[in-house]
Each structure stands twice: as C-alpha cells, then as structure tokens.
Amino acid sequence: MTIAEKLPLVCPRCRSGLSESNAGSFDYKCEKCKVSYPAIDGVPWLFRYPDAVLAQWLSRWQQFRAQLSARSSKLDQYLKSELLAPTRVRLTQIQVALAHNIATLESILHPLLDRTPADGSNHLLEKVSWTQHFDSYFNNIFRDWGIIDENLASVNFVAPESQKIEGSVLILGSGAGRLAFDLQQRWQPEVMYSLDINPLLMLLQMQMFSGKSVELYELPRPPRDAEHVAVKRILKAPAMRSQNNALVPTQRAWHLLADARNVPLRDHCIDVLVTPWLIDIMPDRFDILARRWNRLLKIGGEWLIFGPLSYNTSSFHNDLTSLTETEIAATLESCGFQVSEVKSNRLPYLSSDAHSQKREETVWLFRVKKIRHEKEPPAENVLPEWIMHADRPIPVEPFLMDQLGTARLQAEAISLINGQNSLQTISMQLAARYGVPQNIALTSIQNLFSSLIETRFGSFR
Ligand SMILES: C[S@@+](CC[C@H](N)C(=O)[O-])C[C@H]1O[C@@H](n2cnc3c(N)ncnc32)[C@H](O)[C@@H]1O
To answer: Which helix (H) or strand (E) holds 419?
Structure first.
C-alpha cells in the first residue's frame, strides 16, 4: 500500500483522493485536476496552487535573509568604528550568532530553497496572509525545544490525563510542534496529523520529531543582561518514551504543509482536532472556521480549542469579531458542536530566561463534541477579483480614493526634490498649485516624509 493510499489525503482543489506521482517519490498527484503536489523533505505541500505558495515563501525567505544580512552589515560598520570594549564584545557576539543562524536556517530550509516554482506562476492565485513570515513565530522555536516549564504547563492544561486515544488526531497550526509532540506522547493515538503553513516551523518540527538536534542562537531584544545577549540553544526533543518506557514511534505522526482553511484531508476522518493558539490569529470569522473544521470530525469527535480568543490586530479583528468566551460557546453550539468543558488560566508566554521582559496571557480551553454535520462555507478569496484577474474593471473603492490625495501630494513633493529645493520652497509651490495655505502644505509634506522614513527604516538613526 502506498502512503497516498494509506493516508486520507485529498486534493486541495477538488477533494478527490491523491496518488503518488512515482512510487516512493513522495510527490502526490490528483488525476482529476491533473495537478502534482510536491513533498518538501517528505512533507506533502498541499496547497491549491502549490507553485504560487512556493513562490511566496521563497520570496519571503529572500526578504528575511536580506533583513538578517542588513543587520549583519550594520554590525560590520559599527565594529570598524571606535567602541567601548563591552560594546565591542556585545556586537561581536550578535555578529557571530547571526552568521550561525543564517547558515543553520539555510540548512533546515534547503529542501524548500532547492525548489523552483514553475515560470509565470501567479502568486496571487493563493495568497499566504501577509502576517505569516519566517520570523512570525521564531521565538516559539526556543520556547518549544529549549525552555521546558512553559510547555509542561500547556500540555497539562490541554490534556491533564494520559488517556490513550484510539483513532486519529489532527493538530492545526502546530507551529514548531512541541505541543503536538507532547500530545502524541501522552495520547499515543493511532495516527497524528500535524499541519502548518510555515515551512521553517514544519521542517524544524520534523527534525525534532525524528530526534535530531539543532543549534540556534536566541537573540533577545532587549536581553536580560550582558550574559544573555546571544544565547546558544540546543534544540532537541526530550526522550521519546511513553509511560511503559517503550519508544513511541514517530512514524505515526504525519506532517503536512497546507492552509488550515482548506485542510487536505477526507471529510469526517478525525477523532480529535486540536487548534492551539490558532483561532486568535486567523483572519477569518470564528463561525466560518467552526463550520469549516466541522467537516473534518466524525460525529462524536472532539475539538479542543486552546489559547487566547482574540489577538487584537486592528486589520482583521474588530468589535464584531473579537469574541468573548460566552460568544465563542454560543457560536460553537450554532455550528454543530456541544460544549463539554470551558476553563481558563493565566499562563506564561514565551518567558525566556534570556529576555528582560515576561508575558502572561489568559488562555482558554474549550472541549467540544461534534453532534451534527454542517454545510462547509464556500472558499473565500483574501483578495478581490479585480486583483486576481488583471482584465477585470477596478471598482471605485472609497479606501482607494482616500489614498489619492496623499499619493498625489507625495508624488509631486518627491518630483520637486532636485538637490536645491527645501521643504519650504516645495511647500510654497504646492500651496500655490492647490490654493491651500503654505503652512498647511508644509505640515502635510513634513508628515509625509517623516512617516515615509518611519515605515521604511523605523527611525532615521
Ligand atoms: C500563534 S502560533 C501557534 C503555534 C503553536 N500552535 C503553539 O501553540 O505554539 C500560530 C501558528 O499558526 C500557523 N498558521 C497561521 N496561519 C495558518 C494557516 N492559514 N494555516 C495553517 N497554519 C497557520 C503559524 O504558522 C503558526 O505556527
């Protein structure tokens, strides 16, 4: 039996079963859509438009690497100048750590970086949210595989008893993977699927599950003291032993790179679904997620929602969608679930001993049972049709019109820069052209240039 036949994997486009492209190649194919889905280091890459998503992650890697290299070049410059001895020591430590981290990340990511997306793949066909980057959850790596106490508190909160689960477990948004690992050890399910959208976290998770170790430097900003400027962490899973002291085979854990909004698994194949620290960061409305994930569970199957309820990024959570626990419970009841348990606790969050600050969060656990099937909501496009399809007319959107005045003023002010003009002379020209008082024109362009510098460089130092 091939892996594709053994696992309930489906095509992310049409949900038909997948076959292996070539026996043992770990690449998958949908005969109906005639689309091939690669496997990255053995992990199925099951996105609707696999090349579009690959192109985005490759470009995000280039950006992330460029940021690390820019920091490193700045350090080079500083180190060539006159410095106090302790400052030289600190900057040299950061310099060494950055070089090590870049090389290590490249080696973890090489199965991804070796890939080339097909020419002309339109990256907008399937957009990875702009909030997801290589460094979005970088510190979770150290928390998961370097600092033990916080992880124990999490697994004890989610699964206080080591009860064996006969069946399948799916962890969505499993990140660097420590909770998935601990749950696998505690529950020993027949099979566990661990899914995430971030290739760095998933490839590192794979290494941890297979018992390998990875060395990375934690670079806390700000560090606790001079001893903790760059702390080398040896990341490794604790011994993989079950209660009766037998090794728990990790072959029963399958890793998937996919979008949690379109899980490439057959309907009703999961006994226990876990979403740790996920609903708070997803841009989607909670009722839509609940209906979407209802599809995956068997009747009587359980869903454990763990983490905060809302992470307040103004871009996608507003007064209507930032729900409290009572609203979450009511929403669940209306989406085919029965709530069995709700509890909360204040748990430490990323409280590294190297960092000068500590964070604590109110986290929740909802244990709910699926009692009826629900119709899955249709897939939503993150972007409007007129961006996805370049030949469609662009509607007169108020948010675009709001930008018009600013964009024109900015373009004109920049076009008047010639090495001679000052803000004063530019504002006089703009004031005359638009019939506004000169002090108003001056204030607007001062604001424009200062915000341009702040968004581009953070500050001008
Ligand atoms: C706040 S982190 C939580 C990680 C992990 N569950 C934990 O508790 O440490 C959110 C995780 O969701 C993943 N994620 C974000 N959007 C996703 C999506 N659309 N599909 C799958 N995973 C996603 C991120 O890559 C990240 O690993």
So the answer is: none
pLDDT per residue as tens digits for the range 35-49: 999 999 999 999 999
- Per-residue pLDDT of 23-38, as tens digits, reads 555 689 999 999 999 9
* 8 A C-beta contact, residue 362 and residue 323: no
Neighbours of 254 (CB within 10 A): 21
What pLDDT, on a 0 to 100 scale, did the predictor assign at position 310?
80
DSSP code of 83?
-
Of residues 334, 248, 254, the one with CA closest to residue 286: 334
Residue where the block lists tokens 């003009």: 421
C-beta of 30 in contact with ligand 1 (< 6 A): no
**Residues shown for the chain:** 461
181, 278, 292, 359: which to mutate for ligand 1, most atoms within 8 A of CB? Answer: 278
Residues 6+ apart with CB under 8 A from 55: 117, 121, 123
Q: Is domain 51-370 given the CATH code 3.40.50.150 in the classification?
A: yes
Q: How far is the CA of 196 from the centre of ligand 1 (A)?
A: 6
Give the per-residue pLDDT at 250: 59
The first and second tokens of residue 181, run together, are 């690992």
Atom of ligand 1 nearest to the CA of 311: 1
**Closest to 97 (Cα-Cα) out of 119, 122, 72:** 72
Q: Is the CB of 261 inside a 6 Å radius of any atom of ligand 1?
A: yes
pLDDT at 249 over 70: no
Check pocket membership of 156 for ligand 1, CB cut-off 6 A.
Answer: no
* Pocket of ligand 1 contains residue 174 by CB under 6 Å: yes
What is the average pLDDT across 302-314?
A: 84
CA 430 to chain centre: 44
Tell me how far apart the alpha carbons of residues 177 and 20 are, in angstroms, rounded to a whole number: 26
The minimum-distance atom of ligand 1 relative to the CA of 178 is 9
Question: Is residue 350 pLDDT above 90, yes or no?
Answer: no
Question: What average pLDDT does this structure show over 117-144?
Answer: 85
For 83-97, how does the pLDDT look when each residue is reduced to its tens digit (9 = 90+)?
999 999 999 999 999
285: CB partners within 8 A, 6+ apart: 321
**Structural contact between residues 216 and 142, judged by C-beta atoms closer than 8 angstroms:** yes
- DSSP symbol at 394: P
Look-up of token digits 């194919």 = 29
Sketch the domain layout of the chain as residue ranges.
3-37, 51-370, 396-457
CB distance 170 to ligand 1 below 6 Å: no
Q: What is the pLDDT of residues 441-455, one digit of tens each?
A: 888 888 888 888 877
CA 29 to chain centre: 26
Q: Which residue type is seen at 271? A: D
